[in-house]
Amino acid sequence: MSSVDDASEHEEAATPTVSPDKAPTPDAGTPEPVDAIPEPPKDPWAPPTSDATPGPAPAPAPGPMPYQQPYQESPYPGGPYPGGPYPGPYGWQPPFAPKQGYNGFAIASAVLGIGGFICCAWLAAVPFGIAALRQIRRTKEKGRGLAITGLVMSGVWLVLTVVFLSLGISAGAYRDAPARDVGFGALNPVAWYELAPGDCFNEFGTSTSKVSPTTCDGPHDGETIGTAVLSDTTYPGEAALRRESREGCDKMLNTYAMDTWSMPSSVIVNYYYPTETSWYTTQQSATCFLASAKHERLTGSLRSDRTTLTTDQFAYLAAVDADTTNSPDADPAEDPTANRLWAGQEADTVTKEIAALEGHNWNSQTAQPVAAFVAELKKILPHLRAAEQSTDTDTLSNELQQAEEDLTPQAKAVRAALGLATSRAGAPAAQSV
Predict the structure, then answer these.
(1) Quick one: 181 and 286 in the same domain?
(2) What long-range pairs does 143-147 form, CB within 8 A, spacing at least 24?
(3) How far apart, in whole angstroms, are the C-alpha atoms of residue 6 and residue 249?
(4) What CATH number is associated with residue 410?
(5) Could you tell me the residue range of the domain that residue 128 belongs to?
(6) Does a structural domain hold residue 256?
(7) H helix intervals, 15-103
(8) Does 428 reside within a domain?
(9) Of 304, 334, 354, which one is at a domain's C-terminal end?
(10) Is residue 204 in some structural domain?
(11) How many structural domains is the chain composed of?
């Protein structure tokens, strides 16, 4: 064998083998070792010292971190930390929190818009609605729908007001016949209350509130004779309004168309009158005009007043203008009181006519016929006074018969001398529109 093998065997032989059960006991003279005092644990979080031997950091012990308190439920609803918001960088402000209530202007706009019929409250809804929309855009309050509702309702009330005003200033076309479409005529329609005396017009289609002015020389539906101002300060009702309008237009006829003999028998006195709505808004008067009772077109003007008559013509017609009293329907035996009253009224009228005719300076051509007419008037005047003062029906009847002298021949002679109509066409009647 090699020398290496020999050396190994020599070493194994030199090393004694000791059994675990027979471990050597310490010598009696060797002192027993004393346990070393343990060093306090080092702080794992302390920074390393310069003389410490570098090495791997010890693993942290399991369990809670040093000096860390276990989590506890906060008794405050906001959590374990103080309430925010926490201050941010310089100049930073927390965002504005939106209000959760309804905008007051929006509520006011909706209320005023819906209740707009009360004293035109819808007018105030407009500025409230606009102000509400501006505020809501900035404050993010509720109520945008209410503001829009107020504005929309204001627009509705505006439209209704315009419609009511347009329909309020209205009157029917011809009350006793269906309205007819006569064409628009002139392109400048006006409201009926804008018509002036002497204006001729056509109906504006089927409209009952507007008419089309036109010339009187051509065919036309009506000729305005004037405006009757109504006396009531509050709306008197339709029946009273029509009655007062008719009376006012009848009086106006005597000053506009003084020569009633030239008036066609088919012509009537008509009038537009206001409704209750227009009474309180625009109009408190009636517009009087002449029209055909047969709903036919008129041609030429029927005006005969100071603007169209000569001086002598006007003096004669003004003198006999009051001769319009109708005799009673009952004869003297049936109603003597009414007949006596009428006789007295006729006597007063004849007296005025005589004074007016004798007081005018007539031209040479008209003076003689007028004198003959006055002479006949003076003959009947005593009989009318006697009938007025009678005490029995026989005397009343006799005196009235004496006063019934027909003055038509004398009146025709005066008219012929003056160039007026010599045939009586009949007095026009009054109608309403």
Answers:
(1) yes
(2) 143/102, 143/103, 143/105, 143/106, 143/107, 144/106, 146/102, 146/103, 146/106, 146/107, 146/109, 146/110, 147/103, 147/105, 147/106, 147/109, 147/110
(3) 169
(4) 1.20.120
(5) 104-168
(6) yes
(7) none
(8) no
(9) 304
(10) yes
(11) 3
Residues 348 and 282 grouped into a single domain = no
Contact 351, 381 (CB under 8 A): yes
Do 206 and 246 share a domain, yes or no? Answer: yes
Q: What is the pLDDT along the chain (433 residues), one digit of tens a residue?
A: 444 444 444 444 444 444 444 445 444 444 555 455 555 566 666 555 555 455 555 555 555 554 444 545 445 444 444 444 444 444 444 554 555 688 888 788 788 778 766 766 767 778 887 887 888 888 878 878 888 887 888 788 788 777 666 554 444 333 333 333 333 344 478 888 889 999 999 986 655 678 889 999 999 999 999 998 887 778 888 888 889 889 989 888 888 999 988 888 889 998 988 888 878 877 788 899 999 988 889 999 999 999 999 999 999 999 987 555 677 888 888 999 999 999 999 999 999 999 999 999 999 999 999 999 999 999 999 999 999 999 999 999 999 988 887 778 888 999 999 999 888 765 444 444 4
Residue 297 lies in a domain: yes
State pTM to two decimals. 0.52
